[in-house]
Amino acid sequence: MILIDRKKIADRIEVSFFDLSRPLAGDRWLLELRCEATVPIGEEWRAEAPEAAASLGEYLTFATTKVRHFVDQGEKTEVLQELQKEMEATLFPYLAGPSFPLRLWQRACQEWQQKRQRPLPPTNDHEEPEDDGPADFSALFAAPR
After folding, report:
1. Lower CB count within 10 Å: N or C terminus of the chain?
2. Residue 45, exposed/middle/buried by CB under 10 A (0-12, 13-18, 19+)?
3. Total domains present in the chain
4. Structural domain for 36, as ranges
């Protein structure tokens, strides 16, 4: 994962672009550009849900990816720049919106709550019968009488 660019938008949101591209065949590439927006967890949110904030850490992350298949190696840089411009044009207004950080926090809290309420996998507390050894299938292969 190679950091391509990092920008600060709005007052607390930092956006990073990562190149996750890999070669496919010959001089062809699978181009993958990942955009990550990090939002620090504010004190007002920590006061609202201290357990969730402690569990989630210092930052919330929103990530999205754009992919292009079978791109010529000579066009790789140009296509990556084009993908970044497209992401900036469509994502930045959404990320810079006044309600984005709060919605991201609410979603993170909801996911955290769901993980907490998920039942634990069942334990194997009951006794299992002892193994009788391998099954005998020889009758299936015996010649007919």
Report:
1. C
2. buried
3. 1
4. 2-103
